[in-house]
Amino acid sequence: SQQGEEDPQALSIQEGENATMNCSYKTSINNLQWYRQNSGRGLVHLILIRSNEREKHSGRLRVTLDTSKKSSSLLITASRAADTASYFCATDEQGGTSYGKLTFGQGTILTVHP
Amino acid sequence: DTEVTQTPKHLVMGMTNKKSLKCEQHMGHRAMYWYKQKAKKPPELMFVYSYEKLSINESVPSRFSPECPNSSLLNLHLHALQPEDSALYLCASSPRDPNSPLHFGNGTRLTVT
Q: For an engineered disulfide with B66, which of A24, A87, A88, B47 has Cβ 3.0 to 4.6 Å away?
């Protein structure tokens, strides 16, 4: 089963609005990462938050992590048309027997209209 | 542009063909990965190499054969594939550090006819 589940599956907003995406997971984690993927391209790392962190910022991105609820959110402020992409959360399972095993959520497709 | 280079960008092959996908990075990363991504789905891990040794095989069918000739190169050899193997194949690398992100290439779009 998927470690990470995201909602919404799709989000459509106007330029300048904020976009919020949520991710839930099932097991204890070392960290949670967010990636962006433009259509047909590779994934680009956005931000990594460790299990002992609660909030992290990077430019227009804000990520929160609630380990008690096993959930995270990604907020993109003042969105731009160029932010149109798929966004994935990925978890690195704590105490896993295999190093480097990232599990990706189902993703949120964000469309920002000019 | 990414720092992980994958070739070819597109590949069409028949079910009896043998082909190889190539991946190269020069960031000194000692972990390299193959992921498979179907349309509108998340990437799924196939293989992980750590220090040029295979450390994870996610029960991938033997028609996919990975190879890591050196710390900069990763290959995926393909033989007798099925049409359902058509997908985007993504290579990634990372430092061997549990709190470092993955660096992805732009993938090879594979179509099996």
A: B47
Please tell me the predicted confidence (pLDDT) of residue A92. Answer: 84
Distance between CA atoms of residues B103 and B40, nearest Å: 20
DSSP A24-36: E-SS-EEEEEEEE
Tokens of B2: 């990414």
Q: Which helix (H) or strand (E) holds A86?
A: strand A85-93
Residues 6+ apart with CB under 8 A from B12: B110, B111, B112, B113
Task: Using 50 as the pLDDT threshold, list the residues of chain A that sit under it.
Answer: 1-2
B43: which chain A residues are within 8 Å (Cβ-Cβ)?
Answer: 43, 88, 104
Top residue of A2, A30, A43 to mutate, by most chain B CBs within 10 Å, is A43
